[in-house]
Write a structure and sequence with these properties.
There is one protein chain. By secondary structure, the chain is mostly beta strands. The chain is 5% helix and 38% strand.
Length: 208
């Protein structure tokens, strides 16, 4: 059977704001690395019939974002929060970005990816419903992401209690305008610094 995935709880929302009391999951390095991130992150999850809500709080002494357009490979051009979500029993998944200035991107990895390149994952799909809002804080930035249930159910998957989804969040944290040596942290911590180890993602628990 599948290895025991960590569990991330998503609280049920009547509105769109994840309460402060929702479980918060801290970012770490991958388990093959020593130490802890210099600049921390915690992420919370919420859900309703309308979709998945994510709220991340990031320590960041230097906000870097050199590409202020949507649907870009933002990890190449500055700080980014990345959200990955996939059905537990299927092979397709989404990779979605939030930047400190509210830009967003969605990549879609279909079941059969043979011969496809990253430009196709970014552009060869119709999933543009992600909503992102970001704000600078006294010690970094916060990001809110909303993924519509309509997107998650595009291939007939269920959403909500009784459905099985895996989630993962990663971060590129640059602290220089030259865009060198970003700090890469994540929740849950994977076995290597490779955000595409999808079978190690956390199981999403829908709290009612």
């Amino acid at each position: 059977g599948r290895r025991m995935n960590p569990v991330f709880e998503a609280v049920y929302l009547n509105g769109t704001k994840i309460p402060d009391g929702a479980p918060a999951y801290p970012f770490a390095f991958s388990t093959d690395r020593e130490g802890v991130p210099i600049e921390g992150t915690c992420v919370r999850f919420g859900w309703s019939a309308t979709g998945l809500y994510v709220f991340a709080e990031m320590e960041d002494s230097c906000l870097v974002s050199t590409n202020r357009a949507d649907e870009q490979l933002h990890y190449q051009t500055g700080d980014v929060l990345e959200l990955f979500i996939k059905p537990a029993d299927d092979f397709y998944y989404w990779e979605m970005y939030a930047t400190p200035f509210g830009n967003k991107s969605t990549l879609f990895f279909p079941r059969n990816r043979a011969g496809m390149d990253i430009d196709q994952f970014l552009h060869a799909h119709e999933f543009q419903g992600l909503e992102v809002s970001s704000e600078a804080t006294s010690n970094g930035w916060n990001a809110r992401m909303f993924v519509p249930a309509e997107q998650l159910q595009a291939f007939g998957e269920l959403w909500g209690p009784g459905s099985e989804w895996l989630v993962f969040c990663g971060r590129y944290n640059y602290n220089n305008e030259e865009l060198v040596d970003p700090e890469l942290s994540m929740a849950p911590p994977l076995s290597a610094t490779n955000y595409h180890l999808t079978n190690e993602y956390a199981a999403l628990r829908f709290c009612e």
